[in-house]
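User: Let's play a game. I give you a shape written as tokens, and you guess the letters that built it. Ready? Here's round one.
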């Protein structure tokens, strides 16, 4: 799991294949990444657990594909 203090607002979130999943709004107190609503097709915030993070560089890179991210979470 990547360090949550390296994750910053407005960072791109990418799936395992490099596809755009969303944009970081913030990391909340529960240790989840809150995605910005503006990027969401349904206009709602979505949350990603930190244990789904594979790496953090110029983007947050997840250890799963985008088709499973929202399905597994919501």
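Assistant: Ready! My guess for every position:
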């Amino acid at each position: 799991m990547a360090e949550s203090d390296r994750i910053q607002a407005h960072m791109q979130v990418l799936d395992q294949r490099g596809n755009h999943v969303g944009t970081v709004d913030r990391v909340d107190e529960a240790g989840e990444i809150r995605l910005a609503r503006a990027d969401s097709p349904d206009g709602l915030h979505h949350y990603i657990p930190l244990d789904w993070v594979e790496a953090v560089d110029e983007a947050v890179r997840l250890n799963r594909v985008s088709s499973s991210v929202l399905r597994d979470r919501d």
